[in-house]
Amino acid sequence: MNPLELAASHNRWTNLPVAEKLLLFGGLLVAALLVPPPVGHLVILAVCCLCALALARVPVRLYLAALLAPVAFLAVGAGPLVLDLVNWRLVVDPAGVDTAWRTVSRAIAATAATITLACTTPVADLLAAGRRAGLPAPLAHLVDTTYRLIGVLIDSARTLRHSHDLRLGHRTSRAAILSLGTQFASVFVLAVRRARAIDDAMSLRAERGQTAVLAAAAPVSAVHVVVICLVLVSVATVGVLT
Fold first, then answer.
1. pLDDT in tens, 164-188
2. Stated pTM of the model
3. Which residue in 49, 51, 111, 181 has the fewest CB atoms around it within 10 Å?
4. Closest CA to 20 of 234, 235, 222, 211
5. What is the mean pLDDT of residues 219-230?
6. Which InterPro entries match (predicted)?
7. What are the DSSP calls for 101-161, one per residue?
8. Using an 8 Å Cβ cutoff, are 198 and 148 in contact?
9. pLDDT over 80 (residue 23)
């Protein structure tokens, strides 16, 4: 299991009903898309951090790493909005700056809601909830298989990188390029082999093209639903009025 899945399976919110967590973080995601920046988005980010770190007790280092990872993509995406090419020179567009910071603010708040859900809810529980809600079995199987394969490949790539480091595969630029090419080739071969192994293993637990998980549906608490609704209304009110 990858660190994110381990955190999702071993925190104080793991056994809470998936419907409650989907209501909370799905509502925060919708609020991030609708409320104007920046106060509303800061409130959403604060609520997500409070839920993950103080209430669910997700490891701080893992949560911050998962939260900050998309920042690089946001920075790259904001570049074309901020910069404009005029007479073969890059200039800063004031209108683009306004659009960029609003977009980045909205994206960070939405990412926080998604990451917090991922850190507090195992994929098996999400797939089981999706199946109960009518998600087609082949689609659930595809999502589960892809998720597991990505985790295996990341672990394999990390192991290969470590082995090449021990053999001084990056001592020179030429050796580093050769080592990188070898790693890519090895990961490609492993991807085909592991994908077949994962599909065979999962087909032993259920019909081919289906996923069988042991995730019982926990009863939803009316008190929790009321509290979640109050939180969402408060976040939306603060975002709209400030």
1. 777 766 677 777 787 777 877 777 7
2. 0.79
3. 181
4. 222
5. 90
6. ABC/ECF_trnsptr_transmembrane (IPR003339), Cobalt_transport_CbiQ (IPR052770), ECF_CbiQ (IPR012809)
7. HHHHHHHHHHHHHHHHHHHHS-HHHHHHHHHHTT--HHHHHHHHHHHHHHHHHHHHHHHHH
8. yes
9. yes
Per-domain boundaries in the chain: 3-122+219-241, 136-203
DSSP conformation class of 214:
-
Other Cβ atoms within 10 Å of 43 Cβ, number: 21
Query: What CA dihedral angle connects 233, 235, 239 and 242, to 10 degrees?
Result: 100
Distance between CA atoms of residues 68 and 149, nearest Å: 23
Helix (H) or strand (E) segment spanning residue 84: strand 83-86
Give the single-character DSSP code of 229. H
Share of the chain above pLDDT 70, in %: 92
- The 10s digit of each residue's pLDDT in 92-124 is 778 778 888 888 899 999 999 999 999 999 888
User: From CA 158, how far away is CA 59, in angstroms rounded?
Assistant: 21
Opening angle at CA 182, ends 168 and 5, nearest 5: 90
Least confident of 52-56, 144-148, 149-153, 198-202: 198-202
What does the pLDDT read at residue 206? 63
Q: What residues are paired with 91 via a beta bridge?
A: 84
Nearest to 215 by CA among 5, 2, 18, 8: 18
Closest to 112 in 3D by CA, of 57, 51, 154: 51
How many CB atoms are closer than 10 A to CB 42? 16
Give the SS3 label for residue 90: strand
